[in-house]
């Protein structure tokens, strides 16, 4: 069975959980606490990911694939979650790279600082800058979504999955989504797709 | 003719120049000075890239595609620069996302601070942290390249083009590549590929 090296708090890992669930693929998860360095052990670096990050998928034969967007790309190939048209494929890629370069490093990191680190962490000083850049990213999404149901070709693709992951939890990072009606509407669209699963399982609470 | 909205100092733009040249595709470039906000004008944001960044390719019909790695993906499809094997495609993607998330934000930004900003910029305080993270990224490349000629499947692909762009100029950002013999060797391999062009044209100098 597929194994997802996972962290329930990670939107990057959630992208993989969501897509695999929507594809009807069975997988088990192994949870890691990144704040305790569990993805930095010699064993993990050697066998799972030399980059010391989570969201790695391990196949039945032991092969591992890292980088959340590479994983969802791999599983989406030849399915409805990735367009067959080459131009549309390029648009999906544009959003995936936008997500990793301009969105995740702000929206996800703000959530991490505000929800995972101690309240007196000096990293709170990063928040204003993360908000400025994060709102820039959200504005770009809003601009696209104000007259489209989804990010590419008006169809639900891995571009939506990649951006949904941290956007729908952006308020945990102190972002106010009420200024983004198109994003709020798109979040509902994504939540209504077949086989949608939530990021945090029912009854889950942070220990 | 294709138009590349370009900046000669940008490794991201160089990825596109290198691939298009190696594919034998004709294109012209329009240069922008990002330090003067030339990619933040209302005109640019509206017609070229709402994200206000360079490395946008404009097609004959006026359509634009942003994000350097999405652009090289698009042009590499169905060519020798992108593998046909699905697992190898996923490996290429892994390196492209690694480049944008773990490599470029350190190796490229250090180059930018040390070569494009005034010598007394307060941003020089970021350099030690950028070097720590940048060396982590270079170590991961070294580990792969110590027994492989190229990053994926021992063939030259867009994974090499993406990582080559800023790696081969890492010393401009204060990185010492002499500790990375496999990377130094790989740089020579890339420079020997058919149709290779240099990042800075002959005779070019910073004004």
Please explain how this structure is put together.
Chain A has helices at residues 11-22, 42-47, 68-76, 86-116, 127-145, 158-167, 181-191; strands at 2-6, 27-31, 56-58, 64-65. The first copy, chain A, has 207 residues and is an alpha+beta fold. Chain A folds into two domains: 2-76, Glutaredoxin; 86-191, Glutathione S-transferase Yfyf (Class Pi), Chain A, domain 2. A four-stranded mixed beta sheet of chain A has the order 2-1-3-4. In chain A, strand 3 and strand 4 form a beta hairpin. In chain A, helix 1 (11-22) packs across helix 6 (158-167). The first copy, chain A, is globular. In chain A, 44% of the residues are buried.
Q: How would you describe the shape of chain A?
A: globular
What share of the residues of chain A lie within helices?
40-55%
* Structural domains of chain A: how many: 2
Please report the total strand number of chain A as a whole number.
Answer: 4
Kindly provide the radius of gyration of chain A, computed on alpha-carbon positions and rounded to a whole number of angstroms. 17 Å
Tell me the fraction of residues in β-strands of chain A, as a range.
5-15%
Number of helices, counting only DSSP H or I runs of 4 residues or more of chain A: 7
Low-confidence stretches of chain A: none
CATH architecture of the largest domain in chain A: Up-down Bundle
Structural class assignment of chain A? alpha+beta
| CATH uppermost class of the largest domain in chain A | Mainly Alpha
Q: Biggest interface: chains and residue counts?
A: A-B, 30 and 30 residues
Strand neighbour order, sheet with most strands of chain A:
2-1-3-4
Q: Write the element-wise H/E pattern of chain A from the N-terminal end onward.
A: EHEHEEHHHHH
Query: For this entry, what is the oligomeric state of its chains?
Result: homodimer
> Could you give the distance between the termini of chain A?
28 Å
Query: Overall mean pLDDT score of chain A?
Result: 94
Topology-level CATH name of the largest domain in chain A: Glutathione S-transferase Yfyf (Class Pi), Chain A, domain 2
């Amino acid at each position: 069975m597929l194994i997802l090296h996972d962290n329930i708090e990670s939107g990057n890992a959630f992208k993989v959980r969501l897509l695999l669930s929507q594809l009807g693929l069975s997988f088990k998860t192994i949870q890691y606490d990144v704040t305790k360095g569990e993805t930095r052990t010699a064993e993990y670096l050697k066998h799972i990911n030399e980059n010391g990050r989570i969201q790695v998928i391990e196949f039945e034969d032991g092969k591992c694939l890292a980088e959340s967007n590479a994983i969802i790309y791999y599983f989406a190939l030849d399915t409805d979650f990735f367009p067959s048209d080459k131009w549309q494929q390029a648009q999906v890629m544009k959003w995936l790279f936008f997500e990793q370069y301009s969105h995740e490093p702000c929206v996800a990191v703000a959530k991490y600082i505000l929800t995972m680190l101690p309240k007196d962490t000096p990293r709170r000083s990063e928040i204003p800058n993360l908000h400025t850049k994060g709102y820039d990213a959200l504005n770009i999404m809003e601009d696209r979504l104000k007259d489209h149901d989804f990010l590419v070709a008006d169809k639900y693709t891995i571009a939506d999955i990649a951006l949904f992951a941290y956007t729908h939890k952006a308020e945990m990072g102190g972002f106010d989504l009420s200024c983004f009606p198109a994003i709020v509407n798109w979040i509902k669209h994504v939540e209504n797709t077949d086989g949608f699963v939530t990021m945090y399982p029912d009854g889950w609470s942070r220990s």
